[in-house]
Amino acid sequence: MDNSKMCEICEEGVVVSECFLCKRRICANCVSQGICVICDETLCTNCRKQLSDRACNVCGSLVCEDCSVKINEEITCLNCNPKRRF
């Protein structure tokens, strides 16, 4: 089969859509709600709209820049941020 028609993740299935975040061409087994399985695993645990680019130093959640705060050298998610508790 032509490689341009193969899923970019599993390399087995026939391409049926494109991930709207990373633009990978993916098969039906590797897509969920328009997002590929790789992007789905790395989505921010708070907003589920952006890819995470850091982990909270308190709880370990994967979060994006908008859902985290840097205090000194420590990254905390908005749920663990001490200023939000008051």
Helix and strand topology:
Elements (H helix, E strand, L loop, with lengths): L16 E2 L6 E2 L4 E2 L2 E2 H5 L12 E2 L6 E2 L4 E4 L2 E4 L9
Give an overview of the whole structure.
- The chain has 86 residues and is mainly beta.
- The chain has 2 domains: 3-41, no CATH class; 54-85, no CATH class.
- The protein has one helix spanning 37-41; strands spanning 17-18, 25-26, 31-32, 35-36, 54-55, 62-63, 68-71, 74-77.
- A two-stranded antiparallel sheet has the order 1-2. A two-stranded antiparallel sheet has the order 3-4. Strands 5-6 form a two-stranded antiparallel sheet.
- Strand 5 and strand 6 (62-63) form a beta hairpin.
- The longest helix is centred in the middle third of the chain and has 5 residues, at 37-41.
- The chain is elongated, with a radius of gyration of 17 Å.
- The N and C termini lie far apart (60 Å).
Keyword list:
two-stranded antiparallel ribbon; 6% helix; 8 strands; 86 residues
Question: How many separate helices?
Answer: 1
Helix content: under 10%
Beta fraction: 15-25%
Mean pLDDT: 89
What is the number of E strands?
8
Q: What is the CA-based Rg, rounded?
A: 17 Å
* Structural class label: mainly beta
Number of domains: 2
Poorly predicted regions: none
How is this structure best summarized?
By secondary structure, the chain is mainly beta. It is 6% helix and 23% strand.
